[in-house]
Design a protein that fits this description.
Layout (H helix, E strand, L loop, with lengths): L1 H18 L1 E9 L12 E4 L4 E4 L5 E8 L1 E8 L6 E7 L4 E7 L17 H15 L3 E3 L1 H6 L5 H5 L6 E5 L6 E6 L12 E2 L1 E4 L2 E4 L20 E7 L18 E6 L6
Parallel strand pairs: 1-7, 12-15
Antiparallel strand pairs: 1-4, 2-3, 2-5, 5-6, 8-14, 9-10, 10-11, 12-13, 14-15
């Protein structure tokens, strides 16, 4: 009888566990009246180290979510990230509509008179990278590799590692370092903070549990310079602080001139 009771307990345990879980699903859309779907957006539950991607129709679903209160973050390159806090009851399904505002690029259009300034600015960034011991990826190299994935370009940097991050869609590439603290899902890697045109796009949390962005979302053809700093000591002070223990990468968008 004891054996039968133990067997029954083992068989019932998964059902009991499922009963304490729920589902978070929904759509990622634009905030305008049309509510156009935003495909390939990352939907992250940082507290659970869970990441899924929205489909072409903007739909996403996260199964087997423990009952309780969770942060849900939606993000995609070119959009402002959105965070929602949801409370999920056991066995329940929560449906969300996550509206991502398009990120406004203040420097997307510049006056023709500024055309001559761009080379001087890039020269300064190159000198800064070299002085700090970092790496500078020039416009000429990016132009030669404009059809390559960004991960292929970043693989050339000594000391930087392309880390394969698991996800529900099969995994993606992130920029990491083997130095530093224990990180995502027990990995020995920690991840670089990311800036785009001087604005912080991603910074690892103190526990390093929020999944990093997919570097291949950054299209090589969109950028005219990249700075890479391998650790806090190399990172310039204006980009330093607690977000830089593992390294920093600065993406500088290709300047478009008003016509």
């Amino acid at each position: 009888m004891a054996t039968l009771a133990m067997l029954a307990t083992l068989l019932l345990a998964p059902s009991a566990a499922r009963a304490q879980q729920g589902v978070i699903r929904g759509r990622v859309v634009t905030p305008d009246a049309t509510g156009r779907p935003v495909g390939a957006a990352e939907v992250v539950l940082p507290g659970l180290e869970r990441t899924v991607r929205s489909g072409e129709d903007g739909a996403f679903q996260v199964d087997s979510v423990p009952a309780g209160t969770h942060e849900v973050v939606a993000r995609k390159l070119g959009f402002e990230p959105v965070t929602r806090r949801v409370t999920l009851a056991a066995g329940d399904t929560v449906t969300l509509v996550l509206a991502l505002p398009v990120r406004v690029q203040a420097l997307a259009q510049v006056d023709v008179r500024d055309r001559a300034a761009a080379p001087a600015v890039r020269a300064f960034e190159r000198e800064r990278a070299i002085a700090n011991g970092g790496a500078f990826i020039s416009d000429s190299l990016l132009a030669k590799n404009q059809h390559s994935p960004m991960s292929n370009v970043l693989r050339r940097i000594p000391g930087a590692t392309i880390v394969r991050v698991p996800s529900n869609s099969g995994g993606y590439n992130a920029l990491g370092s083997s130095r530093g603290r224990q990180s995502l899902r027990g990995s020995k890697y920690c991840f670089y903070q990311i800036y785009v045109d001087g604005q912080r796009y991603f910074a690892p949390t103190s526990a390093n549990i929020e999944p990093p962005p997919d570097v291949d979302e950054f299209k090589v053809a969109d950028y005219e310079a990249i700075e890479v700093y391998r650790g806090a000591a190399q990172t310039p002070s204006q980009y330093g602080g607690t977000g830089a223990p593992c390294g920093t990468i600065l993406f500088w968008s290709r300047t478009r001139v008003a016509r």
